[in-house]
User: Fold this.
Amino acid sequence: MLPSETAGKVETGQNQIEKTQEPSAEPEESAAKKCGDGICDPVEKDKGICPEDCAGDSEVEYEEAGTNEYYVINETSGSKLYVRFFPAENAEGAAPTIIFIPGGTGDSAMFTDEIPGGSAASQFTQAGFNAVVFDPDGRGRSEGNEDFNGYTGQDGLYYVTLFVDTL
Assistant:
């Protein structure tokens, strides 16, 4: 006979077993209930469940280099990485953001140079996306040494993504 549920009990044959609830994920539930309180709780930060409370909570170092242009510090190499932000055109409210990652030994110019139909960055901004381009270590307008797609370059991308979360 298959177990059947009735009013908080599980019946198995002739025996009745009281159902017990598993302990709830208390920290996540309490953090979710606090979402929007303006405080970035550890659970909210670790799980990414309340970005409005944790926006701007990044500890990434950067400096402004011009209008929508920045240098983000790759903490692994200590290099300043060039980052440029292109805001979405005609977007109502928050727009999704795309980060263009140069391949091989390329740099941000591969996404900002004009081609028929406009640069890749401008095509995305016209479609309602924020676009971000950057130069990895040792390329374009960034400092440092080329890592040939090694861990230093990957760490640089990590710091760029942390920075983009603050925009």
In short: The first helix runs from residue 26 to 34. The chain is about 25% helix and 25% strand.
